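quick one: adenine bound model?
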Amino acid sequence: MRIDIITAFPPLLHGPLSESILRRAQEAGHAEIVVHDLRDYTHDKHRTLDDTPYGGGAGMILKAEPLFECIETLQAQRHYDQVILTTPAGRVYDQSLCKQLSMEEALIIICGHYKGIDQRVIDALVSMEISIGDYVLTGGELAAAVIVDSVIRLLPGVIGDGESMLTDSFMEGELDCPYYTRPPSFRGMNVPEDLLSGDHARVRKWREHAARTLTRQRRPDLLEDSSRNAPERKKK
Ligand code: ADE
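yep, here:
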């Protein structure tokens, strides 16, 4: 899968993309992620990216010309399945949309910034607007990093078989159960007996029950609406 990210602040993305699973996924050739500096598509002396909104008001708007030039340059090189804009005005991101995006071949993600971007970019070039939640970030870079991280981990081969089997086949659309590791007793707090039993059926039953209880307590909406088709349990 190929993902091109367009941003006015490339360093904001370098950290998340160059560590851990995302780094390994790129090194192993599962994903090619390219960050484009929007300033490279400006042509004036000051490399101007934004301007004041027509009609007045506070805040700056990302200009249409550099975004058009960058996106059209990319689209001349290959077909993109989606051109995504990160914005609080978008569709709220969830695991089902994540799964849908992970099945695409190539994506462009535009990181929204400042007060917004010129509407003509959205009208002419953007196919999907995504919000990662009902709060406002200073810019779309962290939202883009969230989308890329969650999509890449679903690509075949990116996460080891053991973990994907566990998460894909086990209790869909629920929160995950609590986990423990050694030692069995720590400061008077003990690991539940069932987990120490070595009996796989008992462990499985404990986990199913614990996951169901936690989901009922914290996210009963997940149980009410199992048609959301979340493909795996959510981590707490
Ligand atoms: N940009 C600012 N806030 C955002 C959000 N919640 N989701 C996506 N992009 C954003």
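The beta strands are 2-7, 32-37, 50-51, 61-62, 82-92, 106-111, 116-117, 128-131, 185-186, 189-190.
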